[in-house]
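Researcher: Sequence recovery benchmark, item below. Answer with residues only.
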């Protein structure tokens, strides 16, 4: 049986099915996350700040009784923060267990973005590997660059972008918040 991927001279030629992404904007740039990782999109709600966390960790939200950590993607990428608008939203993403702090189950995390755009189908033939030159986003966060019509979509790796393991405090604070919430109920 033939495969859809063949390696030639260190490059990979893909002729497989299209990748489905949720595209969103940060300023004028367009980014995408694998649609299978996205659980829901909500408007910005009250975020409870957490002590001793990185600047990009905005805090936690209570979403239908579940405590979810929230990061601001602009801050995560070292971009200037901007005030929230009517289009600002939180994308709730399922982060695989290997990104967690000694956890065996996936964890939901929220990501604040400027605007959610659309769901895109990008054929694998229209996806380039991440560029080799420097940019404001760490290269490990990028899985590829998708070409759609007349625009470019930076495809992000949710596991690396939303790595809660960078702050061991975050996981313990979230567990404390969840315990307090269950006692109050």
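Model:
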């Amino acid at each position: 049986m033939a495969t859809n991927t063949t390696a030639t001279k260190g490059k990979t030629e893909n002729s497989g099915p299209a990748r489905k992404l949720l595209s969103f904007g940060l300023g004028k740039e367009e980014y995408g996350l694998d649609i299978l990782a996205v659980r829901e999109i909500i408007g910005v709600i009250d975020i409870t700040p957490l002590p001793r966390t990185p600047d990009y960790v905005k805090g936690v939200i209570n979403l239908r009784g579940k405590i979810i950590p929230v990061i601001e993607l602009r801050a995560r990428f070292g971009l200037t923060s901007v005030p929230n608008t009517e289009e600002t939203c939180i994308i709730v993403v399922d982060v695989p267990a290997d990104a967690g702090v000694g956890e065996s189950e996936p964890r939901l995390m929220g990501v604040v973005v400027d605007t959610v755009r659309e769901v895109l189908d990008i054929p694998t033939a229209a996806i380039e590997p991440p560029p080799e030159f420097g940019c404001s986003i760490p290269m490990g966060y990028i899985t590829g660059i998708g070409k759609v019509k007349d625009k470019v979509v930076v495809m992000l790796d949710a596991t690396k972008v939303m790595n809660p393991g960078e702050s061991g405090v975050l996981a313990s604070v979230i567990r404390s918040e969840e315990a307090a919430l269950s006692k109050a109920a």
